[in-house]
Amino acid sequence: MKSVYFISGIDTGIGKSVVTGLMARSLILRGVDAITVKLVQTGNDGFSEDIDLHRAICGGGRFPEDAAGLTAPQIFRFPSSPLLAASLEGRTVDLGAVAEAVRSCAAHHTVVLVESAGGLHVPLTPETLTADFAAAQNWPLILVASGRLGSINHTLLSLEAAKTRGMAVAGVVYNGYPPTDPLIDADTPATIRRYLAKWGFPPALVRVPSVPVGGPYPDLDFSELFA
Questions:
Q1: Domains (range + CATH), the chain
Q2: Is the pLDDT of residue 40 over 90?
Q3: Mean pLDDT, residues 23-46 taken together
């Protein structure tokens, strides 16, 4: 098990925050000291709604790192890409601060799950895409996908982007929300596993059922991704 994992998605609204919270819940219930971090939070002012959701799913309260700002080191008010949201405030995304916050969390916890802002090609600065930054940190990728139309294309493009950057890929989470056609629901995970293996990644895929807003939150086994 690595100390830091990077959770990204094939698109915005794919369920990264719920999946990140469920993974943290699973690890904690199995005795692993895990914490979550939001890479960059947009659309909030002074807090991270995604971190709040992670804590609600885990059900264990807040961490000292939350109060210290280490789990949401960059927050911007406008709901957009981090690049645009920062520029509207006359700021830039401080990638050094993000990296240092994650290192600090990793020094005090066994596993850190870093949730992305959007997908792998979301720009963080004029020169740096999200995938560029995550690859430079050597964080293994856990990609959140689904069975909605277009998902195979977006999933394989994301995995290819990771491969071209030399990123390690721990596996894929197949989110069952929203529900899709049973034929698609059977074919898509098989296709994803096939391409994971073809490109030299572990063919690890964990299914997550449709989770109601506000819970109850299931205890799922994500050990295949952390093997």
A1: 4-208 (3.40.50.300)
A2: yes
A3: 97
Q: HEC string of 30-54?
A: CCCCEEEEECCEECCCCCCHHHHHH
Number of C-beta neighbours around residue 115 at 10 A: 31
Count of other CB atoms within 10 angstroms of residue 200: 8
Judge contact between 71 and 65, C-beta under 8 A: yes
Give the global pTM.
0.97
Q: Is the pLDDT of residue 203 over 80?
A: yes
Residues 6+ apart with CB under 8 A from 64: none
Active site residues: 38
Q: How confident is the model at residue 60 (pLDDT cuts 50, 70, 90)?
A: confident
